[in-house]
From TrEMBL:
PANTHER family, sorted: AMP-DEPENDENT SYNTHETASE_LIGASE DOMAIN-CONTAINING PROTEIN-RELATED, SECRETED PROTEIN
Superkingdom of origin: Bacteria
Ranges in coiled-coil conformation: none
Protein name: GmrSD restriction endonucleases C-terminal domain-containing protein
Length: 169
């Protein structure tokens, strides 16, 4: 894909909000914004790992087609500050947010965790599914280790093995 590529047709849908008829009305959004990832531990990553994150290699839910309006509204906010306009999208959104944070071993602050838990209470059927990033573990002394970021309750597995857990647990 070149730098001048753009969407030109079709019917496009943003689960955050509503149907969009023109491709020009969509943005491709990072589930966990780049600025949020930086503050959550990506600042200690290698350039290669940051690039892999930016292009969300290997995880379809890390990049989301959303309306330009929702993308501007979300900016670099976490779920404590912003949730999709459509209430029926909240369970999916927090599951994909948590999966991205877990996949990349990114930290979550107290307000973020509280917001995720608050939404998760109403999502008994929603699970978090993720594959660990293949770029290696978080560096020693990373934000996740210092701030007590998201922890897996399952035993560590081999990279490339999908993990699932209920977000309402």
């Amino acid at each position: 894909m070149g730098t001048n590529c753009r969407l030109t047709g079709g019917s496009w849908w943003s689960y955050y909000q509503a149907w969009v008829t023109a491709a020009s009305g969509l943005d491709i959004d990072h589930m966990v914004p780049l600025a949020e990832s930086w503050d959550s531990g990506a600042s200690g990553w290698t350039a290669q790992r940051r690039e892999a994150y930016a292009y969300a290699q290997g995880a379809a839910t890390s990049l989301v087609a959303i309306t330009a309006r929702s993308n501007r509204s979300k900016a670099d906010q976490d779920p404590a500050q912003w949730l999709p306009p459509a209430a029926e999208a909240h369970c999916r959104y927090v599951a994909e947010w948590a999966a991205t944070k877990l996949r990349w071993s990114l930290a979550a602050d107290e307000a973020e965790v509280a917001a995720l838990r608050e939404v998760a209470v109403g999502c008994p059927e929603q699970t978090v599914t993720y594959e660990p990033a293949v770029q290696g573990p978080a560096p020693r002394g990373s934000a996740r280790q210092r701030q007590g970021g998201p922890r897996r309750r399952d035993a560590p597995g081999r990279e490339g093995r999908a993990r699932q857990r209920s977000i309402g647990a």
